[in-house]
Amino acid sequence: xxxxxxxxxxxxxxxxxxxxxxxxxxxxxxxxxxxxxxxxxxxxxxxxxxxxxxxxxxxxxxxxxxxxxxxxxxxxxxxxxxxxxxxxxxxxxxxxxxxxxxxxxxxxxxxxxxxxxxxxxxxxxxxxxxxxxxxxxxxxxxxxxxxxxxxxxxxxxxxxxxxxxxxxxxxxxxxxxxxxxxxxxxxxxxxxxxxxxxxxxxxxxxxxxxxxxxxxxxxxxxxxxxxxxxxxxxxxxxxxxxxxxxxxxxxxxxxxxxxxxxxxxxxxxxxxxxxxxxxxxxxxxxxxxxxxxxxxxxxxxxxxxx
Length: 306
Prior knowledge:
With about 300 residues, the chain is an alpha+beta fold. It has 2 domains: about 1-175, Hotdog Thioesterase (Thiol Ester Dehydrase, Chain A, Roll), CATH 3.10.129.10; about 175-305, Hotdog Thioesterase (Thiol Ester Dehydrase, Chain A), CATH 3.10.129. About 25% of the residues lie in helices and about 35% in strands. It has helices spanning about 15-25, 50-60, 70-85, 195-205, 215-220, 230-245, 245-250; strands spanning about 5-10, 40-45, 95-105, 115-120, 125, 130-140, 145-155, 185-195, 255-260, 265-275, 280-290, 295-305. Strand 6 (about 130-140) and strand 7 (about 145-155) form a beta hairpin. Helix 2 (about 50-60) runs antiparallel to helix 4 (about 195-205).
């Protein structure tokens, strides 16, 4: 674990002020010795903007009065971006592949609660295809930890360039069994995603990665069409669970997401799930059909903590 110090932020980082750091990040080269920043960014007294929350709830179909976990991610995203653009991070932001995400939430967050957000890196891990960066977000209400999310990003590099000390091997934090192996899988919902879904989510979240916005901007980065934000689809999945099992999403739960194949826009996607462990856990998947072939975009599991 990285030994972290604390950096107290006076206000939410401005996206406009992050642009120069983003441009500098494009010209980074991988150094011989790799380290991550050890500081923990702390932003206290973060209010819930009710109009912004309403826009999120409508876009992502969140059905509850409580603050959606996907909205908590949006609140923390400027801090995550500031951390990823830190000059001590050895990799450029563009080129990092979001491969997995986990969320633990111990109770509902209410709209009148001021929040404290903290973001930090854990240890850099070797991976068979390069390096794995783990970025953690913790959110506190009244000094109580109510939400914790971990994002794993893959940076592809040649193995001979790895600068992590010998003897360490890649550790996966996620054990997952494909939902499609079960016979009791339920088709819960089908969603029609429009081509501008990426632009809609970008306006709401502040995540303007070009691969999500327009056909021309996606093609510049090697994609034939714009692709959906992984965090947008994760939020839709949690909204679907909130519609199906509202008590679960208002209690304590842990959820794991594996981002698999890109989801091109526009598209029609199916949300499947099945209950396991006597209704105390669920396996789920988000998939589409391409010329008769089933394409899994996200797979994961949701478990009731207690």
